[in-house]
């Protein structure tokens, strides 16, 4: 009878467990059996007098007992003592040996202005007017940088990294040395490029430069605060960059770099030797040969130039301080300091190229104004080098007989440089595409066949900005009536040289990104904007920059920063081609990477409302440009129309947790109509 009494209780226990939480073990409700000492029969008699809760306590105790017995079977062999390991901090040597300075600003750690040497007089006068003492970071950094300017080291000095709180005076640590390096004779050659993450910081840095700009160096600020065309005129009024210093945000710099008329050429910051070589060669009228020894000459080419100079075939050799160290040539009768040496060591080094082995030699130094006074006083007289020296003032009347020939030579130089520039300007406007195309020996003259457009899985994997660019590329190719086949691949960006999609493959040539595809097709003579004037082309590029930078940043923000969009859409689409756990881990890592980029360009700290406001401003500008016209610039579509369609259509047709982007587009009737008409005309058969 006891068994009959116990059975219902056990049954109730099972019923109770079926409704228990998921934390209970899967088979916790199953009855247990044990072999007793009498014969191994099942028995519940010993629990029949307990309530249901007490039975559960007994079972848990038994389970705990079995677990403890089971764990006791694992023994640790030997006499081993375990102690927590100390964390090993690995720091690179340049960080561990860094110069430290206090972060706080108080009277005890400020330094007198006279404690820092090397600033030109004009700049130092402005310093004394504007600041009373040096901050700790300035006292730590400025002496080193200014010393390298006045005492140029034989080997290029190492870079300097500064880590200091906001407001500690870091800006002057590079503003003053840059202005000191430019000196009292600004040349209109690009000497320094300062990159700032946001527009407001660009303005702040520009004000610092102007505050201490004693000698009129040309400072250009590029941040989008002013119109693109105005920035171009300020930067390069005649097509050649005339600024000594450029301060810019990354995106604005890319806009100017990828615009043919900007005049910025970071690959040729030092062209004076080339100009001087052309000018002297023209004046020589083939009476003697002029060559230049530049840093891009290596191996046999460098050896041949030096050999011709040693044998006398080349009579004039133009070179820099660093390169002249390798010129060990007897019989050099004259050294001309076209740019005055900064210190006595450089002067002696240059002068030592002539008068070797007991032979006579001359040194001619060209200078004027403040630079001449400093050179004579601080370099020559102060160091006892004013020996057998003469100073001669050159009057204009002394040069009149040569003025006409010199002006003709200048005219020839201008034509020569324009011709060189015309050849050099025939380059792909996309900077990244240029690098990729050079590395792959891109040949735009090949036939247009076997053309494939590689994209991610558009329906399952591609994210907003990727889908928009892939669609824009297809729209562009369809407008240009160029045949292609779309090949969707998981992680198509992995086969792209730039790591971005879409990727156009023409035979063996790979061309990444929309801008690269447009440039590649232009090399084949197909330009959708060919009917536009130069002014309209510049406006078109400005609008493409607006689309590519601002709209794309908004899409990046919504895709990765907006929590609901990331959790409900981005995480699943990005991880759709991976198996667990990579489909969760890799999206998280990618999100961290994108947020870092957004942080760098000032977008990560923006709120959703601020981002939507920026988005609406961009749409308003695009809507105003479109007006009632069929396309942005008239009755014919351009590259800008293809790019705009890709971004508009993507937002309109994608179901997003954040519908504000779609609603913003729909609030502009002409943009919505443009997207519908474009789709009907070029994508619907």
TrEMBL record:
Position of the signal peptide: none
Subcellular location, record wording: Mitochondrion outer membrane
CDD domains the UniProt entry points to: SF2_C
Biased composition (Basic and acidic residues): 38-50
Region annotation (Disordered) ranges: 1-53
Keywords, alphabetical: ATP-binding, Membrane, Mitochondrion, Mitochondrion outer membrane, Nucleotide-binding, Protein transport, Transport
MF (Gene Ontology): ATP binding; nucleic acid binding
Stored Gene3D superfamilies: 1.20.1050.10, P-loop containing nucleotide triphosphate hydrolases
GO biological process: mitochondrion organization; protein transport
A GO cellular component annotation in the UniProt record: SAM complex
InterPro entries named in the record: DEAD/DEAH_box_helicase_dom, Glutathione-S-Trfase_C_sf, Helicase_ATP-bd, Helicase_C-like, Metaxin_GST, Mito_Protein_Transport_Metaxin, P-loop_NTPase, Sam37/metaxin_N
Similarity comment: family membership: Belongs to the metaxin family.
Residue ranges occupied by any Helicase C-terminal domain in the UniProt entry: 249-395
Compositional bias per record (Basic residues), positions renumbered to this chain: 1-13
Helicase ATP-binding domain segment(s): 151-307
Pfam families per UniProt: DEAD (PF00270), GST_C_6 (PF17171), Helicase_C (PF00271), Tom37 (PF10568)
Protein name as catalogued: RNA helicase
Source species of the chain: Haemonchus placei
